[in-house]
C-alpha cells in the first residue's frame, strides 16, 4: 500500500507519556496516531493513511451500527532488552482476520497489507512501546467495519479498516492468580454454523450477560458449553482452555464453534516441543469434574492475548463448587516459555517474531 502520513501537531508530551507507561492498565490510553484504509467494489482498498488519533464522524445510518458487520484482531508489540521492537506472529492475526471477514461477508485485506498497516503504526508511535519489565507491551487493535450509509440488509459496499494502539501493563495487577469460573447453563456463545470461530464484536456482546451472571456469583470469568447438547466445554468469555492430565498429556476443546486463538495455537506448539501429548477434541463438563475428583486432571489453565496464560481456580455452578487442582507447574512452565519468546529472552526457534524497529 501507498501510505500517506500526517503527524499530529500535539503529541502527548514526554512527561505525561512516562506517567502513562509507568502504569498503563489495559485499553485506557491511546497513542498519538491511527491508521485508516477504505474499500469499495470499484476501487478496492485505497486511501491508506496515518493521521492524528481522534473521533470518527459516522452517519446515523452507517451499516455497522445497525447490522454489526465488523471484525477485529488483538495483538501486541514487544520491546526487547536491546531496545528493538517485535511483533508476535502478525501473519497469523492477518490470516485469522481474513477468515473472520469471509464469515462476515467483508472484503479480505491481504496479509501483506495487514502487516504493513500494523508495522506503520508501530513505527510512527514507537515511543509508546513500553520497556518490557512487568510484561508491558503495546496492544494493537486492527478492526474492519461496514461504513456505508445504507439501511438495506446486504453486505456493505463501503468498508473501513483501521488500526489503533494502546500501551498495556500486566493483565494481573498484584501478581498472577488463578481465575475463578462460573459455568453458565442458560447462555451459549455460538452454535454450529454460527459466528463462534470469527473474531467479531457480536460474539463478545452475547457473552456479556453471562459474564454478569458470573460476577454475581463471585467469579472472574464464565465458561460456555456447546449450544447443541449443553455437554461439551467450549471456551471462556474471552479465553481458550486447557486440561493437564496426570500422565502429562494435555487436552484442549476442539475448534469449529469457538475462536482459534493465536496464543492457543502457540501453546499447543510449545507444549508438544516440551514433550507433552496435546489433543484437540470435544471435552465434556462431566469429564472435567470427574477428572479433578479422581486426580486424573492435575491442572487447568486458560489463555488469551491479554492475559497470556492464567491458571484456573475453582469452578462454580448450580450443582456446587469444584475445587481447583493444586498444581500449576506445567501451566507456569508453558507460560514462561511463551513470554520468554515474546520478550526476546529465549530463542525464537519457530520464527514467530517479526522485528519492526
From TrEMBL:
Pfam families: Aminotran_4 (PF01063). Keywords: Amino-acid biosynthesis, Aminotransferase, Branched-chain amino acid biosynthesis, Pyridoxal phosphate, Transferase. Pathway: Amino-acid biosynthesis; L-isoleucine biosynthesis; L-isoleucine from 2-oxobutanoate: step 4/4; Amino-acid biosynthesis; L-valine biosynthesis; L-valine from pyruvate: step 4/4; Amino-acid biosynthesis; L-leucine biosynthesis; L-leucine from 3-methyl-2-oxobutanoate: step 4/4. It is an enzyme of class 2 (transferase). It catalyses: L-leucine + 2-oxoglutarate = 4-methyl-2-oxopentanoate + L-glutamate; L-isoleucine + 2-oxoglutarate = (S)-3-methyl-2-oxopentanoate + L-glutamate; L-valine + 2-oxoglutarate = 3-methyl-2-oxobutanoate + L-glutamate. The keyword Magnesium does not apply. GO terms for biological process: isoleucine biosynthetic process; L-leucine biosynthetic process; L-valine biosynthetic process. It comes from the Bacteria. The modification N6-(pyridoxal phosphate)lysine is found at residue 199. One of its GO terms (molecular function) is L-leucine-2-oxoglutarate transaminase activity. Belongs to the class-IV pyridoxal-phosphate-dependent aminotransferase family. NCBIfam families: ilvE_II, PRK13357.1. Its EC number is 2.6.1.42. InterPro entries: Aminotrans_IV, Aminotrans_IV_CS, Aminotransferase-like, B_amino_transII, BCAT-like_C, BCAT-like_N, BCAT_family. This is Branched-chain-amino-acid aminotransferase.
Amino acid at each position: 500500500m501507498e501510505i500517506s502520513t500526517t503527524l499530529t501537531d500535539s503529541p502527548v508530551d514526554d512527561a505525561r507519556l512516562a506517567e502513562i507507561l509507568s502504569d498503563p492498565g489495559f485499553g485506557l490510553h491511546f497513542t498519538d496516531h491511527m491508521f485508516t484504509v477504505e474499500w469499495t467494489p470499484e476501487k478496492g482498498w485505497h486511501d491508506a493513511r496515518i493521521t492524528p488519533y481522534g473521533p470518527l464522524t459516522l452517519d446515523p445510518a452507517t451499516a455497522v451500527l445497525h447490522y454489526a458487520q465488523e471484525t477485529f484482531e488483538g495483538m501486541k508489540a514487544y520491546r526487547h532488552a536491546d531496545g528493538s521492537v517485535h511483533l508476535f506472529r502478525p501473519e497469523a492475526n492477518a490470516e485469522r482476520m481474513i477468515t473472520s471477514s469471509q464469515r462476515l461477508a467483508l472484503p479480505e485485506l491481504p496479509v501483506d497489507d495487514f502487516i504493513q498497516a500494523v508495522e506503520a503504526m508501530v513505527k510512527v508511535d514507537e515511543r509508546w512501546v513500553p520497556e518490557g519489565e512487568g510484561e508491558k507491551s503495546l496492544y494493537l487493535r486492527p478492526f474492519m467495519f461496514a461504513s456505508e450509509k445504507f439501511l438495506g440488509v446486504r453486505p456493505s459496499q463501503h468498508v473501513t479498516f483501521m488500526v489503533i494502539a494502546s500501551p498495556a501493563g500486566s493483565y494481573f495487577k498484584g501478581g498472577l492468580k488463578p481465575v475463578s469460573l462460573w459455568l453458565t447453563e442458560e447462555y451459549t456463545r455460538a452454535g454450529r454454523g454460527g459466528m463462534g470461530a470469527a473474531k467479531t464484536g457480536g460474539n463478545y456482546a452475547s457473552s456479556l450477560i453471562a459474564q454478569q451472571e458470573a460476577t454475581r456469583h463471585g467469579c472472574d470469568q464464565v465458561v460456555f458449553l456447546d449450544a447443541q447438547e449443553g455437554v461439551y466445554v467450549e471456551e471462556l468469555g474471552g479465553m481458550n482452555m486447557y486440561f493437564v492430565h496426570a500422565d502429562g498429556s494435555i487436552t484442549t476443546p476442539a475448534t469449529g464453534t469457538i475462536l482459534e486463538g493465536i496464543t492457543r495455537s502457540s501453546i499447543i506448539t510449545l507444549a508438544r516441543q516440551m514433550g507433552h501429548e496435546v489433543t484437540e477434541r470435544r471435552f465434556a463438563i462431566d469429564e472435567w469434574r470427574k477428572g479433578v475428583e479422581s486426580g486424573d486432571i492435575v491442572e487447568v489453565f486458560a489463555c488469551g492475548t491479554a492475559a497470556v496464560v492464567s491458571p484456573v481456580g475453582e469452578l462454580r455452578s448450580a450443582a456446587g463448587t469444584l475445587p481447583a487442582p493444586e498444581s500449576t507447574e506445567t501451566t507456569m512452565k508453558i507460560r514462561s516459555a511463551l513470554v520468554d519468546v515474546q520478550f526476546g529472552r529465549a530463542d525464537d526457534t519457530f520464527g514467530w517474531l517479526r522485528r519492526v524497529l
